């Protein structure tokens, strides 16, 4: 028998909420084609799994390993592997780096770690590539240098607080236990002290909250910070990712959509669904790009 809360995760139910939004509030021109509303509803249903204990549905060995570290009170290692996961994606490149550089080793000598990345860029290229959201996915000398600097900036950011646990505990304490304010504080701090893409920072902090490593939660969409998110929102409401729509208008529409979907759909859920949908539907292929 289906539990009442499970109803909100069923694709037909989500489709009905999207249809109501389209009819009563604002046209979802990006979902006007055959089956497109169902496709987007499926992304929302998949993203909504974050409302359930992750152990109940994950088959991802990396997330399983992160959870194992966390249960063993190895929070630093759990967060380090999670950061690499959010930065690199599912790739042999991640395994090649993490097998050689645990958090303890990388934190103890960030300069040596940085040099290792650069010196071993050819071997790392053979191990795998970065995920699709990176402009240059294959590892070469330039990409290795940039990646090494990004990793070092993350290590330095955490090290200034002592440990990951201390950093997250401090953020929650200064926010007086308010999860969305703590999230914002950490995101602002990351922007000040690290140099990698903002979507990686948001993905990382969302997962920190989802895995209950820290009591933080995404409280706004940050549409102006993540180009893919903005393009996906434009696509959803206007039918084209390049349509000019003010970020403030997009934000208001997203808040209304969230209310229409109901309390089971947090900002983090809608953010994740838009990002995943955007990767498949919005990212244009440059016709002048050639692979050699």
UniProtKB/TrEMBL annotation:
Pfam families: aGPT-Pplase3 (PF18746). Residues 66-280 form the Alpha-glutamyl/putrescinyl thymine pyrophosphorylase clade domain. InterPro entries: AGPT-Pplase3. This is Alpha-glutamyl/putrescinyl thymine pyrophosphorylase clade 3 domain-containing protein. It comes from Pedobacter agri.
């Amino acid at each position: 028998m289906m539990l009442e809360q499970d109803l909100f995760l069923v694709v037909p139910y989500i489709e009905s909420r999207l249809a109501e939004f389209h009819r009563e509030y604002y046209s979802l021109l990006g979902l006007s084609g055959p089956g497109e509303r169902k496709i987007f509803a499926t992304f929302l249903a998949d993203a909504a799994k974050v409302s359930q204990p992750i152990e109940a549905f994950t088959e991802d060995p990396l997330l399983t390993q992160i959870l194992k570290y966390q249960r063993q009170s190895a929070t630093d290692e759990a967060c380090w592997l999670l950061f690499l996961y959010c930065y690199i994606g599912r790739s042999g490149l991640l395994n090649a780096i993490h097998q050689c550089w645990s958090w303890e080793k990388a934190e103890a000598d960030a300069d040596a770690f940085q040099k290792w990345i650069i010196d071993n860029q050819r071997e790392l290229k053979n191990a795998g590539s970065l995920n699709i959201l990176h402009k240059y996915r294959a590892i070469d000398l330039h990409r290795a240098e940039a990646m090494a600097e990004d990793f070092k900036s993350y290590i330095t950011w955490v090290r200034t607080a002592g440990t990951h646990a201390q950093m997250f505990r401090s953020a929650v304490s200064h926010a007086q236990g308010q999860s969305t304010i703590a999230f914002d504080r950490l995101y602002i701090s990351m922007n000040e002290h690290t140099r990698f893409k903002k979507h990686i920072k948001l993905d990382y902090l969302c997962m920190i909250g989802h895995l209950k490593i820290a009591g933080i939660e995404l409280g706004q969409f940050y549409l102006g910070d993540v180009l893919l998110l903005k393009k996906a929102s434009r696509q959803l409401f206007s039918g084209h990712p390049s349509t000019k729509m003010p970020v403030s208008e997009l934000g208001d529409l997203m808040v209304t959509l969230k209310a229409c979907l109901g309390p089971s759909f947090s900002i983090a859920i809608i953010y994740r669904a838009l990002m995943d949908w955007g990767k498949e539907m919005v990212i244009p292929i440059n016709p002048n790009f050639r692979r050699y």
